[in-house]
Amino acid sequence: MRSRRWFWPSFGLPGLVWLALFFLVPFYVILAVAMGTVDPIFRFPVPVWNPLDWDTQAFETVIDELGPGQTYGTVFIRTIGYVAIAVALSLAIGYPVAYYIARHGGRWKGLLLLGLVAPFWISYLMRMLAWVNLLQEDGLVNRSLMWLNVLDAPRTWLDGRASTVVLGLVYGYVPFLILPLYASLDRIDKNLLEAARDLGANRAAAFRRVTLPLSKPGILAGCVIVALPMFGDYYTPDLLSGSPKTSLIGNQINLYIRGGPQVTLGAALVVTLMVFLLVLMVYYLVSTARAARELR
Amino acid sequence: MTLARRFRAWAANPWGKPRFLLLITLAYMVWAIVPILVAIRFSFNEGRSRSTAQGWSTRWYWDDPDLSVWNDPSLREAVYQSLELASLAMLGAVPLGVLLALALTRWRGRGSGPARFVSLSPLVTPEIVMGTALFLTFVHLFSFVELGTPAQVIGHVTFSISFVVVIVRSRLLSIGPEYEEAAMDLGASPRQALRMVLLPLLAPAIFASFMIVFAISIDDFVISAFLSSDATTETVPIKIYSNARGAPTPALNAVASVMLVVSLLAIALAVVVVRLVQRARGERGRAVDDFARLNV
Quick one: pLDDT band at residue A155, thresholds 50, 70, 90? Predict the structure, then answer.
């Protein structure tokens, strides 16, 4: 009987050991580096493994500079602003699309879904490359806008414009929002809507009082799942702008981690970002676990 | 003018399907897909431009003696590196993930909650956090793992395990425990029930996991970038990142298109095989739908 009891848990052992070594331990390492010291001569970071000897210097620097108007404060506020706008736009685009396919896809549903899923499996960098091509000075966007007489002269889109970066984020992440949204809308029992209509609700009221509340978990999960990678993004601003005017917290981290005495500071920034995002991450895991239990 | 009015009447027709939403959906599809098609089209340019169409040729794929994907060593190496990483990640992550999924689904005792939490956490951890943490771990703690291919493979396996867990676990939940219980009632040991009943039932999900891990690994940028050692371990997304703004020729579009085809082929293969098996077993289920739900 004893061997029965350990039969299933033993299957998880290799995977759990792997994740402990390469997922949990790295979090400890990043703390040890952030609270570590810098070699006085060679200026490279020296992690401190014993928590009793941890030095909070780097965190104090980060927190000092976190106020509005200061280095990290500005970058943090910009990141939050870009992500908030990009998530709102993604939802505004994604909800009608997911809703239409889930409710009215009909026999085209498979094909429409394929259109939704395809961008999901195309490399993010390839999709950004496509926009770099389109937004060149002699690119298709400028030429079409000039042909339509919207622009008189070609505009430089890729030169530190916040709007380009935000649109890049939306373009890059919207597929990740649409899919969970579609799944939650598709699960809604159509009988509930018919009942609402029978009881006198018109289309708009049925949507507002039945569909919208029932799709709320999908909306929240979708928003969280796109907000998380957006907060860590540095390649979208690098590719679509490349200017410090649009640099995000991810750019700052990427710059610091790459070398020199700043690594300690970079690690402290990663930990700060992580603490900031922890609420969202836990929310997502808890809500999906609950949804899975309900389905069972 | 009448055309505009007729269009407005058509879109606002309250009796048919919501045509306004159909328009949004179609516009979204065009917006999502066309930029990528344009980028692929430029890869077949005869000239050097990546922003205007200049005839058709396969020059940037293999004809050009120095600068084509086939003849430029740095691009060819990047393709090899991407494929090598994807193959190794697939071989590492799928066995670990399948075993972990079995354990998490069937094991209900103490410790299963935290184990589930750890196995799904990589899905919601921003890649920049995982990338920097692993980078610092390989530099400061596990320094016997070299940056470059070994570190990159470990990184890819770590974030892929969770995807395998999600795919296989959802399949296990839909199979339910009945088949195994029946086998064990008929005298099979748990081990035999697993091998002779459960694994065959899981085969399509396992195959899909292989293909999906392959595709995710090919598309990954952040982890590969933080863990690469030098130019020889750069993958295709890293090449796109470092060359998109300055690239002199459409060879970059060509190499991106090659990888796009490879990763879409892997996914298409997974969809087709899963669908064929489902049909042969008389199960109902739409493969595309299942894939759309993967991320929920």
Answer: confident
- The residue assigned the tokens 């690594």 is A263
Best residue of A1, A21, A113, A133 to probe chain B, by most B CBs closer than 10 Å: A133
Contact (Cβ atoms closer than 8 angstroms) between residue B83 and residue B217 = no
Query: Which residues contact residue A237 at a Cβ distance below 8 angstroms, ignoring those fewer than 6 apart?
Result: A165, A168, A246, A247, A248, A251
CB B123 within 8 A of CB B91: no
Residues 11 to 30 of B: which have CB under 8 A from any A CB?
Answer: 17-18, 21-22, 24-25, 28-29
Could you tell me which of A116, A138, A148, A130 has the C-alpha nearest to residue B292?
A116
Structure confidence by residue, pLDDT tens digits, A18-48:
999 999 999 999 999 999 888 777 778 888 8
Identify the CATH class of B73-293: mainly alpha
3-state secondary structure of A204: helix
Token readout for A227 is 């907000």
Segment holding A45, helix H or strand E: strand A45-46
Contact between residue A117 and residue B35 where contact means Cβ atoms under 8 Å apart: no
Domain boundaries, chain A: 1-64+262-296, 77-258
CA gap A231, A248 in Å, rounded: 8
DSSP type of residue A245: G
What pTM was estimated for this model as a whole?
A: 0.90
ipTM of the prediction greater than 0.95, yes or no: no
Q: Which of A19, A32, A179 lies nearest to residue B292, judging by beta carbons? A: A179
Return the DSSP state at A37.
E
Between vectors from CA A32 to CA A30 and to CA A35, what angle results, nearest 5°? 105
Backbone phi and psi for residue B145, each to the nearest 5 degrees, phi listed first = -90, 120
Of A9, A99, A125, the CB nearest to B109: A9
The CATH H-level (homologous superfamily) assignment of domain A77-258 is MetI-like (1.10.3720.10)
